[in-house]
Design brief:
With about 550 residues, this protein is α/β, with parallel strands linked by helices. The protein contains 23 helices and 15 strands. The protein has a 9-stranded mixed sheet with strand order 1-2-13-12-7-6-3-4-5, sandwiched between helices. It has a 4-stranded parallel sheet with strand order 9-10-8-11, sandwiched between helices. Strand 14 and strand 15 form a beta hairpin. The longest helix is centred in the middle third of the chain and has 22 residues. The structure holds 1,6-di-O-phosphono-beta-D-fructofuranose. 1,6-di-O-phosphono-beta-D-fructofuranose binds next to loops.
């Protein structure tokens, strides 16, 4: 296979490990834990995996370990660094006992159920060190939640003599990992399940998880592209660029990119919701900024839009909640897709129906139909950037008639998502992921199940990072999913009183009016540490460094 010069050079990079994982490891256990909310319900649902202590790995005495066979699954959307979790896991299980074996389940959780797997040997592993993508074994969005799937998985687990399964995924996949861990523990099957915090969206974070892997590289990639657009925009001075960035629900990616590039406008979905804004309020806000810049002679600008914003507009959120309930009705499952739209409409309250009818047909259809296997609206398919620019154009026409706007409004549209999900991991993600994989191996060696591998203190140099594990139940609460209350890991949305948002809010008016663009340039892998090893601004502000 032909490789780029960067790929060849990058393969030789040795990711850094925290001190606690560099040599022999001792397991240090903390106090028992509790779930973040609904403690009684979560405890009752997870009697075997609730309340376990936090774990930290510290330097210890050399001990002998039996060989351990481990299976690994990549779940959900790609995120830079996934291959390094696998290489970190491989290197650590081999270090603990060279007879250990690692198996990869092909194309996500479905690979476990369908017994579709491959052994990951040193030759294969070496091909993928420090590379982006999930193509070593592929990923998928099959939801692992039914007893039949758990039992089917057990057959291959027994056949390959696996001690543990490691599931690399976001909040939904790790919730399911915990359900699987609990099931195998309750049945006393002796199979451990360990999770790993992945998602470019950055919304799998809490008091124990400082950031999900992939967020760093994806945001740096999008920020490079936004910076390039800003420079083009400031050179040609004739377009307003509407740039949608991924992030299904939370606006962490949009906010981080705004902090890195200082666009004229960045919407933050969580603020839209908190302020009870309507679609029209958003359009009005953008149009006013466009008009103000036009008054200064600047008929150009950049608008960053989080892909999930539509779901956070309170009236649309209410509509989606009712659509979810309606689409979960048994009758809805037996009719065709076309019939489903009419079926849904016939069940809506008059208020929700009015909102539904006010939306462009394509957007309304998207909200009423497509759901991913976890029941989420597929927001990446909704062209919010076009919807908003069209509505802003109409508003400006009206303002022009009223004498409130004089200028030209030419637009360009962009959607950045897939451009960053498989980028070659930054040094941060390469190191972080390798350490997560190594931690997962140590959790398995320590006999833990229902834990997620974690690495903390991540704004310090990598040697000072602290590796360990957190019981997944600690991060759970009860939420309504597909019309039913379910135990799930609480998603981390942008906090409006958090340091990253406050930093943005303190500067946005200035960025709106002036042209204060910052051009981050491409990710650098070699060079001065302030160029190559900076964490995201979000992480630095949250950790106050
Ligand atoms: P995960 O939550 O699975 O990590 O996926 C994140 C994401 O990239 C979102 O930002 C985006 O909305 C979604 O995946 C798109 O998924 P797909 O490519 O499967 O449509």
């Amino acid at each position: 296979m032909t490789k780029s010069a960067l790929q060849v050079a990058r393969a030789a990079y040795q990711p850094k490990l925290p001190k606690g994982l560099q040599g022999a490891v001792k397991v240090q256990e903390g106090a028992p834990t509790q779930s973040v909310d609904n403690q009684e319900e979560i405890k009752a649902l997870f009697p075997n995996t609730y309340g376990m202590p936090l774990v930290e790995f510290v330097p210890g005495e050399e001990t002998k370990h039996d060989p351990m066979n481990v299976g690994i699954i990549l779940s959900g959307g790609q995120a830079p660094g996934g291959h390094n979790v696998i290489t970190g896991l491989f290197d650590m299980v081999k270090k603990l006992n060279p007879e250990s074996r690692l198996y990869g389940f092909i194309l996500g959780p479905g690979g476990l159920v369908d017994h579709n797997y491959m052994e990951l040997t040193k030759d294969i592993i070496d091909e993928y060190r420090n590379t982006g993508g999930f193509d070593m074994i592929g990923s998928g969005r099959t939801k692992l939640e039914k007893v039949e799937q758990f039992e089917k998985g057990l057959e291959i687990i027994r056949q390959l003599n696996l001690k543990a399964i490691v599931i690399i995924g976001g909040d939904d996949s790790n919730t399911n990992a915990c359900v699987l861990a609990e099931y195998y523990a309750a049945k006393k099957y002796g199979v451990q399940v360990i999770g790993c915090p992945k998602t470019i969206d950055g919304d799998l974070k809490n008091s124990q998880i400082e950031t999900s892997f992939g967020f760093d590289t994806a945001c740096k990639t999008y920020s490079e592209l936004i910076g390039n657009i800003e420079r083009d925009c400031n050179s040609a001075r004739k377009y307003w660029h509407f740039i949608k960035v991924m992030g299904r629900s939370a606006s962490h990616i949009a906010l981080e990119c705004a902090l890195q590039t200082q666009p004229n406008i960045c919407l933050v979905s969580e603020e839209v919701e908190a302020k009870g804004m309507s679609l029209d309020d958003i359009v009005d806000y953008i149009a006013k900024v466009v008009a103000a810049r036009a008054a200064d002679g600047n008929n150009f600008g950049t608008v960053v839009i989080p892909e999930g914003v539509i779901e956070f507009i309170p009236a649309i959120k209410k509509l989606i909640a009712q659509l979810n309930d309606v689409l979960a009705l048994p009758e809805a499952k037996t009719i065709s897709r076309d019939e489903q739209v009419d079926f849904a409409k016939s069940h809506l309250t008059p208020e929700n129906l009015a909102v539904f009818n006010s939306l462009p047909v394509g957007v309304a259809r998207q909200l009423a139909l497509d759901r991913d296997p976890h029941g989420n609206v597929q927001v990446s398919l909704i062209e919010t950037e076009k919807l908003l620019s069209e509505m802003v154009g109409k508003k400006l026409d009206q303002m022009k008639k009223e004498g409130k706007y004089v200028g030209k409004f030419g637009t360009q549209h962009h959607f950045f998502g897939y451009e960053g999900r498989c980028a070659a991991p930054s040094n941060f993600d390469a190191d972080y992921c390798y350490a997560l994989g190594a931690s997962a191996a140590q959790l398995i060696a320590a006999g833990k199940t229902g834990y997620m591998a974690i690495v903390k203190n991540t704004t310090a140099p990598a040697a000072e990072w602290k590796a360990g594990g957190v019981p997944i139940t600690m991060m759970m609460n009860m939420e309504k999913r597909n019309g039913e209350m379910k135990p799930v890991i609480r998603k981390a949305l942008v906090e409006l009183d958090g340091a990253p948002f406050k930093e943005f809010a303190a500067h946005r008016d200035e960025w709106a009016r002036k042209t204060a663009y910052v051009y981050p340039g491409p990710i650098q892998y070699w060079g001065p540490t302030e160029v190559c090893d900076q964490p995201t601004k979000t992480l630095a502000l949250e950790q106050k460094r």
